[in-house]
Amino acid sequence: MKKLLVTLSATALLAAALNLAAESAGKEITIKGAGQCAKCALKEADACQNVVVATNKEGKKTTYYLVQNDTSKKFHTEICKAAKPVSVTGTCKKVDGKLQVTASKIELAK
């Protein structure tokens, strides 16, 4: 009886943890950092693509690649030739080892 109870409890905890992870994957976040072009500024891509390079308190830099959607495409002219401070709101996920953000809002930081 105790084994059954322990097994059921462990299964319930695992299910709850998986559900929480699935919910946070679609949660909107806001990233602030230097908006740049992956091709023109970073020389990492063959085609223009928005990226945000964010720096944490310890000085570690993280690069977020913006998915090519209408929001991202409309904003690209602002940061293609020169890096500018930006604030990006959207959902983030890791794809092929890179952090990709699907932006719902991009604006120049003040």
Report on the biggest sheet: 5 strands, mixed, barrel
The CATH class is identified as Mainly Beta
Structural class: alpha+beta
Assembly form of the protein: single chain
Tally of DSSP β-strands: 5
**How much β-strand is present in the residues?**
35-45%
SSE string, helix = H, strand = E?
Answer: HEEEHEE
Compute the CA-based radius of gyration. Answer: 19 Å
Output mean pLDDT. Answer: 82
Q: How far from one another are the termini?
A: 62 Å
For the biggest β-sheet, the strand order reads: 1-2-3-5-4
Summarize the SSE layout with pairings:
Elements: H1 2-25, E1 28-37, E2 50-55, E3 61-66, H2 70-79, E4 84-95, E5 98-108
Parallel strand pairs: 3-5
Antiparallel strand pairs: 1-2, 1-4, 2-3, 4-5
How does this structure look, described?
- With 110 residues, the chain is α+β, with helices and mostly antiparallel strands.
- The protein has one domain (28-108): OB fold (Dihydrolipoamide Acetyltransferase, E2P) (Beta Barrel), CATH 2.40.50.140.
- The protein has 2 helices and 5 strands, in the order H-E-E-E-H-E-E.
- The protein has a 5-stranded mixed barrel.
- It starts with a helix and ends with a strand.
- Residues 4-24 have low confidence and may be disordered.
